[in-house]
Amino acid sequence: MKVFLAGYNLDSEVIEELKAAAPPRLDATPETLSAAYARISRDPRPVNELRRAARQEVERSRQSNQTIIFGLGHSSVAEHAVFNFDVLEVSRCAMEELEKFRLCSFTEKSQRYITLDSAYHTPAELKNTRWAKVFAALIQQQQDLYSRLFEQLKPYVADKYAALAADPKNKNLLEGYAKEDARYITGLAVYAQAGMTVNARNLEKMLRRFASHPLQELRALGQALHALVQDIAPSIIKYQEANDFDKNTYGELAECTTGFIRNQPAEPAVQQCRLLDYTEDGDAKILAALLAKTQALDWLSAQKIVQQMSGAEQKNIFRICVKNMQPWDQMLREFELVDLTFELVVSASCFAQLKRHRMATLLAGRYAPELGLRIPPSIAAVGLAAEFERVARGAADLYRELQAELPAAADYVLTNAHQRRVLCKVNLRELYHISRLREDAHAQWDIREIAGLMCAAAREVLPLTASFTGGKDVYPELYAAICA
User: Fold this and answer.
1) How far apart are CA 191 and CA 182, in angstroms?
2) 363: in domain
3) In which domain, by residue range, is 56 found?
4) Of the candidates 32, 52, 80, which is a domain's last residue?
5) What's the predicted TM-score (pTM) here?
6) Per residue in 275-299, pLDDT tens?
């Protein structure tokens, strides 16, 4: 066996210092890795020699990338080139679009742990319009109330968690509780920042999507990202321009379907979590898959055997699935055979956390003030619920005006308390991951409630294989109930 370290990430300033101390060279590019790995399938030389050759012939490597990636369509070759970006001074609106790309890695500034300052993004669409001053005044109202909420929530939280407050070491923890509720009044125009790691294939897709986006902020973000890499890796990022598919498809669908929604009955009361669809006989399917794998059976034979098992025998198979697990372990891959589809109504604050589960299918509708507000109970406890609602209503009123004339910019005025519908499809294995993280006692209360509703619905239709869902804090009790 031979294993070589082919490369690793370096801070860009270190790279520039190394380049400055060395003679000019063309091979300071990730393109050579893509070119070398692309040749593995057809060149008999060891891969470490292919890398050496690619570094020595950069222009030839670039031509090879062009041919293989764009000529032959082997786009996965571009995945070997990886970039890290610091993304600063973008709005929460833009960050939601950025983090839709599920095969990238993000670590985002948390509004739960950091006290927000007054910095925010003013959409170019609103500048020099009659709404510009109204927008600025509204954001100022939101930020002023955030500061008041934070100050009044601190003593409330300290009193509520008096045992924790007795230890000065818990000061930051308790202030974090106050911040996470106060931020519900802050707007989606507030600045966010994140570290992003992305391979060239997904970066190119991101650039096309942003070039086609109606928001000028996202078009500018795409242009800024492209400017940073276009000279470093010109052979693996080629199709970054706007295109009709990304630009027009949803708009044309909206126009086509508008006529179907006239004279619809009044909307029923908002339901936070509704299970829309699920895999029938999911428990049996997972057990059959486990039997087929471990006994080398065909699927139909495995299903018949599971149907003949007693309930105790089925429970024992499930017990063996989990008895060697630790709280950080994932369920077996066979649990991916079962899907559940939920309709969720979530706040912007909750969605900011839900969107991080990018292996789920998340189809988010527009923010809709008619869905009401998600106001933390602590706000009412300190007597500021009425003022919270007043500021949020002002945001909703401006949102409706903008929807009529500048719809692309409307979301910026809404708060973290405003809600949207999200279709969420997960397999059971992914739901377990969500459950362990988001049902845990340390999780934020809003997403903890949503995760709890999702898992409760799952247990109704998958009484055996979903029975182990729950946060890390209750893991010992769950384990004892199944394995004792």
Assistant:
1) 16
2) no
3) 12-80
4) 80
5) 0.91
6) 999 999 999 999 999 999 999 999 9
